[in-house]
């Protein structure tokens, strides 16, 4: 389906905890969720994202963390602190 070498797929299964197909000792069965994770991994690898970072990103995604929103909120709070400091001077 994805034309991936078996070794690559096994490596990702080992390193990325979100990718855990069901097995019956010899055959791996991938759910739709597993296939969605694979699509995301393939996309991120095509963008040269390291496997360790992919695992972290998938963990954040699974927790429902919107990284852009979090970054915006962080930057907004820093800006407010800087403005307050400037006004004190």
Describe this structure in words.
With 89 residues, the chain is mainly α. It has one domain (6-88). It has 4 helices and 2 strands. Strands 1-2 form a two-stranded antiparallel sheet. It is elongated.
Number of structurally distinct domains:
1
The amount of beta strand, in percent, is under 5%
Determine the oligomeric state from the structure: single chain
Distance between the termini: 63 Å
What is the percent of helical residues?
A: 55-70%
Reading the helices and strands in chain order gives HEEHHH
Mean pLDDT: 86
Helix/strand-derived category reads mainly alpha
Taking pLDDT < 50 over at least 5 consecutive residues as the criterion, the unreliable ranges are none
Give the C-alpha Rg. Answer: 19 Å
Overall 3D shape:
elongated
Q: In this structure, how is the largest beta sheet organized? A: 2 strands, antiparallel
Count of DSSP H/I helices: 4
For the largest beta sheet, what order do the strands appear in spatially? 1-2
Report the count of strand segments.
2
Task: Set out the fold topology.
Elements: H1 6-15, E1 22-23, E2 28-29, H2 32-46, H3 51-62, H4 67-88
Antiparallel strand pairs: 1-2
């Amino acid at each position: 389906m994805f034309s991936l070498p078996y070794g690559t797929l096994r490596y990702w299964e080992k390193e990325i905890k979100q990718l855990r197909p069901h097995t019956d000792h010899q055959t791996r069965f991938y759910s739709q969720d597993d296939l969605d994770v694979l699509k995301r991994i393939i996309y991120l690898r095509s963008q040269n994202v390291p496997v360790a970072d992919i695992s972290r990103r998938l963990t954040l995604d699974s927790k429902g963390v919107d990284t852009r929103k979090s970054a915006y909120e962080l930057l907004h709070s820093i800006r407010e602190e800087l403005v307050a400091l400037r006004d004190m001077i």
